Amino acid sequence: MGLVGLGDVLATVLGPNDLRAVTICRRTLRLILTMHGLIRLVDTAELLATELVSNAVRHTKGPAALRVRWAAGVLRVGAWDADPGPPAPPGDLDPLTEAEEGRGLALVRACADLWGWQPLARGGNRGKCVWCDLVAA
Predict the structure, then answer these.
(1) In angstroms, rounded to a whole number, what is the distance separating the alpha carbons of residues 115 and 131?
(2) DSSP states of 15-37 as a string?
(3) Which of 13, 32, 78, 125 falls 20 to 30 Å from 23 in CA-CA distance?
(4) Residue-by-residue pLDDT tens, the chain, 137 positions
């Protein structure tokens, strides 16, 4: 795992394709947001990061990364993975409330102010970043 802080990018946490990376990313995010005085965003950001990183690890074969950026009062939390294909569209959250799986992007859509994804190609590496924004009130 590696941690980088650049300008308005608070952190990038790189991890292997292993479910333990989800816990490491969640705990690191809590620490970063607390250190930057963004405590009011911690609980929601942790939930969203958990869903995004979990999807990246569970549904792809390569490494994953959590990216955290703070700019103009908006916290962007994103998960990068090596698969350039789009994520499956989120379903309605209501019928999924009791489900063990399949709620990830539905929770993201319900809790984030904005969410989306974009394909990435940089330095010969391909993949995508699924992201969500939380606006500080």
Answers:
(1) 6
(2) E-SSTHHHHHHHHHHHHHHHHTT
(3) 125
(4) 443 443 466 778 877 778 888 999 999 999 999 998 899 999 999 999 999 999 999 888 888 899 999 988 999 999 999 898 888 877 665 555 555 655 678 889 999 999 999 998 877 678 999 999 999 87
Strand 125-135 and strand 74-81: the pairing is antiparallel
DSSP per residue, 70-133: EETTEEEEEEEES--SPPPPP--SGGGTT-SSS-HHHHHHHHSSEEEEEEEEETTEEEEEEEEE
Number of CB atoms found within 10 A of residue 12's CB = 17
Q: Of 102, 106, 71, 80, nearest to 92 (Cα)?
A: 106
Which tokens is 35 given? Answer: 């250190």
CA-closest candidate to residue 51, choices 9, 88, 10: 88
Token pair listed for 47: 């939930």
With a CB cutoff of 8 Å and minimum separation 6, the contacts of 59 are 81, 83, 87
Residue 21 is encoded by which pair of tokens?
């990376």
3-state class (DSSP) for residue 68:
strand
